[in-house]
Amino acid sequence: MVQTGKNVKNFKEGDRVAAETHVPCGHCYQCTTGLQHICREMKILGVHVNGAFADYTILPVVCAWKLDPSISYKIAATMEPFGIGVHALSKTQPAGKTVVVFGSGPIGIYAQVVAKMSGAEPVIAVDIKEERLKLAGKMGADVLINASEKDVVQEIYQITGGFGVDIAVELSGSPAAVKNAGRVLRRGGDLVFVGLFSGPVELDLTNDIIYKEANVYGITGRIMWDTWWSAQRMLLSGKLNLDPVVTHEFGLESYDKALQLAESGTVGKIIFNI
Ligand SMILES: [Zn+2]
Q1: Euclidean distance between CA atoms 37 and 222, whole angstroms
Q2: Domain interval for residue 174
């Protein structure tokens, strides 16, 4: 932080901060009932207001998270997406449960890491890109399934002894994965949707949700600041190393190359070093 506005009280020049990207209005029903992250008037940093792909950026003080001194800037830059992984599992109780995460992009991997750290056994990662599955394996997934080569539903029923999974987390944004997530869920299991889709998608509500009495959760962003506290405690525990999820670092001048690489869907997190 190089400068603070005149009304800012709790931060000062030189403070190290990470940014919550959801900018809440502070006045709506959600904001006044502890649900700032789903504010009705929410602005998103980098979408509705200028983002951080710049030498300097203006951060509303309501979105500033003071970093613990031991957290590196590299990890700090990934606390926002890591927080989505933390929030994704927050409605469930993964200890001793089977968890499948569809999508091994960076946030899918974060969710998988949180499930593992919370005691899930086993954690199954599903993706269609070998590079990403490799990273998922490196980050501790117990079982890797390439959905372009294997029948995911059959594989998962085999792994779980015909039982189905306790918790399915959808982070791929693929309509095929939604169907599979419903199909592999055990009766009474938790189905968590986090990945975004370009349009409506199909799910067998009768068989995979209603008859199963599935608990369905939609997850977006991070709870302010509950998720951030949890994310920081996990990072400070020394029990996880998220460094390998950042597979590439670029200077801002290489943004074109960085964005192309991100779109290829074969890499982990890419960060810009200013
Ligand atoms: Zn609001």
Answers
A1: 6
A2: 91-218
